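hey m, so remember when u said the C-alpha cells were messed up on ur end? i reran from scratch. heres the input so u can diff it against urs
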Amino acid sequence: MGAGIRLPFRSPDDPDIEDATDTISTDEEKIASIIRQYNLNQLFVAFTATPAPATLTLFGHPFDSYTEAEAISEGYIVDVASSIISFKTLYHLHCPVVPVPDQETEYPKGVVAKALKNVAFQDEGLIQYKAEVMLRIFEQDVAPLIGGRAKAMIVASSRVAGLRYFEIIREKLRERGAPYAALYAFSDFIHPETEQPVSEHAANGLNEGEQIEERFEQDDYRLLVVANKFQTGFDQPLLAGMFLDKPVTGRNAIQTVSRLNRCHPGKNGVIVVDFTNNAADIIKAFTKYRRGTPFTPDEPDSDLSIRLYHEILATEGFKENDISRMAELIATGNDARAQFMVNALRIRFLSAFTSMTARKNVVRLLARYARAYRFQTCFFSFPEQYGRCAIFAEYVGPQLIKQGPVSDLMKLVRATDVIKASVRYQGEVRNTGGTPLQRSSGRTGVAPPQTRVSVQDMIDEIQRTYAISDEEALFIKEVTREKMADDSIRETVHLHRNDRLFLDGTYRGQVNGKIQERYSDHGRFNELADVKYTDTGGIFDIMAMTVISTHLTEAA
C-alpha cells in the first residue's frame, strides 16, 4: 500500500464554502466575499536568508526575494564578510590512559573528536595567549570604531572555555585600568571540575529581573563572551568586532557573523578574527548565499519511506512483529518491558551482524528512515505500520550498538594533557567579490585555463605534502576514480565550465562532501577525523579539485 497525498488547503470549489456573491450588490462587497472564500488557500512564508534544501522542498521556491547583496548595496546592512583576519590554533595532545585494544565498548567518533578539541580549546595557557591577542586587536582596531563606542563578541567553544575567557579578560581589563568591562552570556551549567552550579545571573552580577542584553547596551560594557547563545537573532547595532574561537560552518557561520551586520550611524566596517583555521570556509559560506539561496526545490519522493521500510525488513535483523510490539510498548508507556525487548533485540542484532561496519550501516538505515518519514508526513499520509516503524527506529536504533558511558569517556579525556600549543598569524582572508558569470546553455565569458591531471599526479602531490600509507593511497585512488565516473558531477562541471568562482568555491565543497560520504560509508573514520584530510587545502580538497579539473579538461 503506497502513500496518500495530503491536501492541507481547502478548495474554493468545496461545497462547504457558500457562494454568496449572487446576493451582494456592491463591487466592494463582492470583492470582500471573494477574498473570504479564497483566504483559506493563502500561505505567506518569509524565508530566512539561509534556507536549507529541506525548507525549499517543503515550501517551494520563493516568488520574491531580497538578497543580502541587495541589502548591502542599498545600505540596510553592513557587509561583514569582506575579509577575515585568520589565526591558526596549533596544539599537541597526550593521553596517558590507553584503552584496552579491541574492547567491546566504543565511543561515537564525533563525541570523542569534540571532547578532545575542547581539551585544547579550554587549555589555560592557550586561552591566556589568545585573550591577550583579542584584547590588543580590540583596543587598536575595534574600540575606535563608531566614534569610540564599538563593542565586540567573543564566541567560545564551550561554556567552560567561555568562563575562563571571561575570568581572564576581566582580570586583564582590571590590570589595564580599562574604562569598560566584559560580560559572559551562557545557559546555566554544573562545572565538570568543581561540580558547582554556574549561573549567568551570578557570574555577571545582574540585578533581579535584569537581562544580560540590557546590561550590554550600557556604554561601559564593550566585550561580550558567548557560549551557545546570541549566535542567532541577537540585535546590537554597536557590535563591530567578532573573535571566533569556535568552528562555525555553512548557515551557522553566516548567522553567527551576521550579528555584526546591523547598521548604526558612523558604522562603516567591521572586524572579524578567526582562531579555528576556518576563515576561508566562512567566506565561502557567505559567497554561496549572498545572491539568494543556492538550492532549488525538489519534488518530495513519496516512495522513499516505503523503500527504506522494506530495506529495513530485508536486513532480516527485525521482523514486522518486532516493530509493532515495540511501538505498542512505547505507546502504553511500559518502559521496563520496552527496555527488556531492546536488550533482546540487541543480542539478536549483534549475533546477526558481526562486523562493526555492518552494524553501523543498519543503525544509519534506521536513522535515515526516521528522518525521511517525519519529513514526508508533511506531504503524504502512510499506512499505520510506517508510523510504527518510525517510532521503533527512533527508540531502538540508538541503543543497538552499546556505547561507552560518558563518564568513562570523560575519565580518558580529563587525563589528556596539552603538551604544546600556540597561535600563528595566517594573514587576512579576503572575499574577492566579483559578479559570477551568468549560467547559460552557450559559452559565455572566458573559459578557465585547462590543466591535464591524472590520479597518479594527485597521489604524488599528496605524498609530497602528507605522510600517507600505501593502503591510504589505494583508497584515495579508488574514491577519486569513482567520482570521476559520476555522471551528475560531470554534468554539473560541464554546465558551469565557465564559472570558475562557482567550481572552485561552492561546488568544490559539495564534491568534498560526496567524497567524505564515501569514506563514511566504508567506515574510514580515522581519515574523517584527521586534519590533513579535512583542512582547507587538505587531501579531500585535493581529491575534489582533481575530479573537477578532469571534467573541465573533458569539456574543453
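this time it looks ok to me. The chain has four domains: 4-41, 69-98+120-289, 304-399, 441-555. if urs says something different then somethings off w ur setup not the seq
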